[in-house]
Write a structure and sequence with these properties.
By secondary structure, the chain is mainly β. 9% of the residues lie in helices and 63% in strands. The protein contains one helix and eight strands; from the N terminus they run αββββββββ. The protein has an eight-stranded antiparallel beta barrel.
């Protein structure tokens, strides 16, 4: 087995030794770029920790994250996914879900903002009492604190609705850390 791995790795190693490293950097003088033609895109994303209290009496803890891109100043579209454990009576099981996120946000008073979103997607798993998978919806309301430098934290409350396995449905509480980013895209002539 070792000899076969050696024979497979040897040609690859020789390629790296013989081939020069490619130069992929295009050097431009930033002063010559025409910023009036730049297209902007704004996004926000980061990790999130959630707890769910479902109708079956299980407590679930999830880790995941979401990333969104802004369509307008306040309307966004993106994706999110979470995975974790459901516990009941000392026995635990796994559950995961994810999907598309659409939402809107607005300012309350600097540095506070609100966020209303809807996740629609799918998921599955279970605990000792109940298991299954289904299409799901999760409407969420968040209160966000901007810390500066594009970093913010949010506390959210929502309801995870799992129609085909309704006992997995329940109230969710989340804590999210977001990082905002601005991307400029410029046309470059050769």
């Amino acid at each position: 087995m070792r000899r076969a791995l050696l024979y497979a790795a040897l040609p690859l190693a020789l390629t790296f030794v013989q081939a020069p490293a490619a130069e992929a950097t295009i050097k431009r003088d930033l002063k010559t770029l025409d910023l009036s033609q730049a297209e902007q895109s704004l996004g926000r994303g980061g990790p999130e920790f959630k707890a769910i209290f479902n109708q079956a009496g299980d407590l679930g803890t999830f880790v995941g994250g979401r990333g969104v891109g802004y369509l307008t100043e306040s309307l966004y579209l993106g994706g999110a996914g979470y995975g974790g454990a459901l516990s009941s009576g000392g026995v635990s099981g796994g559950f995961g879900y994810g999907g598309m996120v659409v939402g809107t946000e607005g300012k309350i008073a600097q540095p506070l903002a609100y966020d209303v979103s809807l996740l629609f997607g799918g998921g599955g798993g279970g605990s000792a009492r109940v298991s299954g998978g289904s299409f799901l919806l999760e409407p969420t309301v968040s209160l966000r604190q901007d810390f500066g430098g594009g970093v913010s934290g949010a506390l959210s409350v929502g309801y995870l609705y799992v129609p085909q396995v309704n006992s997995l449905s329940g109230v969710t509480v989340g804590l999210r850390l977001d990082f905002k980013r601005l991307t400029l895209t410029l046309p470059i002539e050769n």
